[in-house]
Amino acid sequence: MSRGVTLVELLVTLAVASIIAAVVLTACAAASLHVRRVAATQAGTAVDDAMVAMLAAMRRDTAWSACRAGRCAVHTGEGHGVALVAGGRTWVVGRGLMLCTAKRCEVIASEATALQLVVEAGGHGGRPGQRTEHIGPAPARPVLVELVLWLRDGSRRSRLAWLPP
């Protein structure tokens, strides 16, 4: 004779199934968060590495300059906004942060959407100078330079450096 399932057996089976489903859901959520964290770290690393390289180029080339893409005397590719020219190379945002040489541009950080260069020229009598967005040749006096990269997700990355004359 066949025996039916009691209500207690049914409830116990459902409880075990829901515990297993909760464990699987938790594992999937943890894996998803880990993948997002790794992707964000890799994207951030490219941006940070690019900013370090930009500041290093500015330190080596005391004749660095900033110009508006399209109005620069150097190749800026499909870039727009501010272009930083240092060490014979141009850093500009187009399809991301691009590094341009005389004839071609290479995307360095695809998540970048805008570049800003803020300069504080040395003040007089120990007073701090005025911080302004910089377009033009490098100032003659020592300066504090802030590079700002705006990213697709709306966040921004910033690096400060003191550049002696």
Automatic annotation (TrEMBL):
<dbReference type="Pfam" id="PF07963">
    <property type="entry name" value="N_methyl"/>
</dbReference>
<dbReference type="InterPro" id="IPR045584">
    <property type="entry name" value="Pilin-like"/>
</dbReference>
<dbReference type="InterPro" id="IPR012902">
    <property type="entry name" value="N_methyl_site"/>
</dbReference>
<protein>
    <recommendedName>
        <fullName>Prepilin-type N-terminal cleavage/methylation domain-containing protein</fullName>
    </recommendedName>
</protein>
